[in-house]
What does this fold into?
Amino acid sequence: PGRGLLLGALAALALCACAPPRPLTFEEQEAYMAKQQCSQEATDMAGPSWGGENPYWTDYFVMCMNRFGISDAALRRMWY
It folds into this structure.
């Protein structure tokens, strides 16, 4: 009995994994575009950030995202 339940759960997970992702909301699209632009600007200003080891890059990135209206709380939900 337990084995059938496990196989059923695995089958359900497989079906969920194959479902196409939902389209991004307008706000998510805006945040994605801001992330792309701010990542490039931060790299141009402070050099690359490998694994978050460049605090100047991170500071510039956060400042840029805030300029686009992305709050610190929203940044933590997205990337932290």
